[in-house]
Amino acid sequence: MIREPLPRDPLGQKLCSIFGTYRWMTIEGDTDDATVPNWRTVDNYPLRPRSLWQRWQDAAQLVGVRFGNTTTYALLDIDAGSDYLSRLDDIKAVLETIGIVRTVAIRSSWNGGLHLYIPLPDVYPTFDVACSLKYCLESQGFKLAEGQLETFPNVKSYAHWWKGQFSEYHAHRLPLQPGSGSAMLNQDYQPISGDLSRFFWSWQFAARSQDVEALGAALKHGRDQHRKRPKLRSHPVDRWRLDLEAEIEEGWSDHGQTNGLLKSIACYGRVFERLAGQELIDYTVRIAVSRPGFEQWCKHQAQIQKKATAWARAAEKYYWPLGDVGQRDKECLTINYNAVRAQEAVTRIKEAVIQLATSGQLLNGVAERARQIARVARASLKTIYKNSTLWHPEQWCVIAQPAGDTADSREANVDPSESLKPSRLSGITHLPDLMKGVRDEARPEKAFTPGGKGGCRGDGGYPQADGGVL
Questions:
Q1: Contact between 271 and 320 (Cβ < 8 Å)
Q2: ω before 153 within 30° of 0 (cis)?
Q3: Within 13 Å, how many C-alpha atoms sit on residue 358's CB side?
Q4: By the 8 A CB rule, do 118 and 74 touch?
Q5: Residue 205: which residues within 8 A CB-CB, separation 6 or more?
Q6: SS3 37
Q7: Residue 124 DSSP SS3
Q8: Strand partners, 284
Q9: Full-prediction pTM beyond 0.90?
């Protein structure tokens, strides 16, 4: 993750650390008529931290920002002329019920509106904060409406990200910009200062004063309240689709979730978007990198293209577009990517053993043989030893078959798509008189000992003739 350089000024650094975390879709306006700014959305490039600081200092223009997926603050906007300007103490009392003990009040502009900032003690999901503020105020009779009382972040509308649609939180102007008329307010809500250092001192004091336990419970309750919906009375496919959409929309919340999310995205693209081939791969990558928490939690950002390709191909094999005739008999087959890779490794090891044994190049020593098979099978030594029964000198034996044998011809004509299925290896046969604990009458001292590890534990393994290859 590339970090943009911050301003040299400590106040600029503090301003960008709070208000500059989400740099897209910022707003700007002129101060020629500050009472009615001609706000414009900057949607063609992100606003870098140093540029944000420069624009904040410019008295000739106004600048505003939006919220990202997480936030360390919120604010209430009460416009001039609103009935709620006379009920500020009531609003602050209501906020205390969800753990917001202290706020920072400023005059937003020359027109006399008020912004009530709510510094938070930690980083919280933005949507949880929005829901908590909304239901907290509405439950006490406060009506949220433009020009009267607004919450930032707002409870934004649901966007169909799978259709390329994205919704943004509402933008707000930055506090205390020179020339904007913004100023801090005292306890009687009278302007006292426009000093940014005093604002940050009050901010830090308020953040430390919040009731963390009560706030955490309120955030969970607010999100749960918003999620309440009438019970679904629909087809199981509709429920499946909604479950996938909910899972993908949440994105990453911790490490170790990459494979699960890529599977869901690829499955959704294949079934509901009817994608295949490179289009499905591109779709899986595009949706994955746009999900919340990708940069913070995903440890496979450099390999996202490779992993998305593997999952897209797996989804294309096991799923089909909704409404088409199924390509397999079993429904709801779970794709186990690790199992597929393990089976592919077993197949390569078997093929390598047959190749080396039939050509007379298979080494006798355990360690030498393991390294030799690892090179030919393109597998790690850990995988080789995990499948030691396929090659260990005292646990297997190979009987070479004559040229032109029907088993060889069948092996040559195997469909590559069948490689994921368990296969029988032609040319490898376990001798019945040497397996399953059967005593070798010719060598009674070589009786099978349960739990033996072959050559690694002396003579306690499966007895073999000298050389290990018959």
A1: yes
A2: yes
A3: 14
A4: yes
A5: 102
A6: coil
A7: strand
A8: none
A9: no
